[in-house]
Amino acid sequence: MIRPVIHALLATVMAVALAATASAALTDDLILLYEFDNAGDLGANSASGNSGTNSGVAHTGSGLIGGASDWAADGAIISVAGSDLPNIEFADDGGGDGSRTVAFWVKTTETARTTFYSTGGIPYGSPFGPNSGAWRSYSLDYTPANFSQLEAFSYSAPNGGFSAKHNTKDNAAFTLHDDAWHHVAVTMMRSGGTTETTMYADGQLLSTVDVDSANPASKSHPNGYPFVHFTLGTNAEGAANQDLNGLLDDFGIWNRQLSPTEISTIHSNGLSGQGIIPEPGSLLLALLGLVGVAAHGWRRCRSG
Asked: 0.85 exceeded by the pTM?
């Protein structure tokens, strides 16, 4: 009687384990992951092991998934480690083809313009704007006062401009500053000098428009986006009054374009407290414990 029970429990454990393995595919080509769980090293990168530099960002235990980073202080930033930058940037070789995905959780009530992340090809704090011939960037800004506009920039001097924007003119229900956790993702696919950008919020594709060309959510420029720094929570060139005031959690970058299904999965997993890197769930651990108890009882029955 006990042996069939053990077999049934083992089958259930295998099913749960396989489900966890399926979610492990989300880590494929993951090149940066700030989980913000280590209060002593908020820049700890679970994907590469290279810690970014924290300047004034606080830690809170009240994250969506474990801890989170708190941008309560003006001018607080986390700078990505320089050793991670070559894996994130698009090469400046006349093509720079490839794809990237940036995704994160945010919780804020900030009503002023906010920069969630930004990159730059000139030193931080240098004169802001496209007049610098070395200015290369992609970034994500949010402006609640302007129809809750979310702007994904793909900028390469001298062409300039951003590749996609979304606002409540397209979806009146869209907001990110309601003091609730929201998941945001931006994918960039670059081929033949053109970058196509898509944006997602809470697992759903956002309608996007390109203000610089007739091609929706795409931007054409000859060069890639090499840069000397990548900053979280502020504009990479030091533009004033764009600092984040709120929390970030599980900030990740992939060296590929995540599918809509994968982005939806990350959103759903986050709401259930599961991060991008799978961990043994309590159900799996409980089932393994039951298997152990049943096996122990079976051995006792046989020895008796």
From this structure: no
